[in-house]
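Not sure how to ask, but would you mind making up any protein sequence you like and the C-alpha cells describing how it folds?
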Amino acid sequence: MRFIAQKDYKITAQSAVSSLNQIKRLLQKVNKQLVDGRSYLVGNCFSAADITFACLVGPILTPPEYGGKTLDLDEFPDEMAVVRMVLR
C-alpha cells in the first residue's frame, strides 16, 4: 500500500519535507490567532472552520480533549513520534 500511495500521490522525500513545513506554518498561524484568548478560528462562535481544523489535526496532536481513538506514542514509528511531539 505504501508504494501505491507514494506513486499515486507522487510522494517523495522532498515533497514530504515541503508538506511538513506547510503544516508547521499552518499550526503556527493558528496558534498566533488563538494566543490572544479567542476561542474560535473565525468570528465569535463555533463554526465549520473550528470543527474542520479539529478533525484534521486531532488524530496526530491528540490533545487531552480529543475524544476519538488514539494511538500510544509507542505505537508510532520513531520518526513520526518525533514529528508528533514537535507539532504538539
Summary: The radius of gyration is 15 Å. Residues 13 and 19 are 10 Å apart (CA to CA). The chain has a mean pLDDT of 88. Helices lie at 2-8, 13-34, 48-61, 78-87.
